[in-house]
Design a protein that fits this description.
Distance between the termini: 21 Å
Strand order of the largest sheet: 1-2
Shape: globular
Length: about 90
Amino acid sequence: MLDGMTEPFYIPSKQIIVDNDEYKDDVDQLRPNSNSPLVVSDDVVTIRVWLMPEARVESASLVTAKNVKSYDVSYVRPGKDTREIPVGEVV
């Protein structure tokens, strides 16, 4: 997904959703090549990345985890299964 996150052609900004509307205009700061990182004041933030066409995510990592205590990644298969399937977790 790193390649996809770097290139808006593969993952357009409209397919990156932060659960807090305060940050909805800042989603491009989540990209690895952003000049400034996304900074949030919330303790827990949910970020959704819609991969269309559907793509299986086997692993995920952060460019830097200096300011992140933990994260987990899961995916939902639209139209097939609404439950979240865990991919990985870092604590």
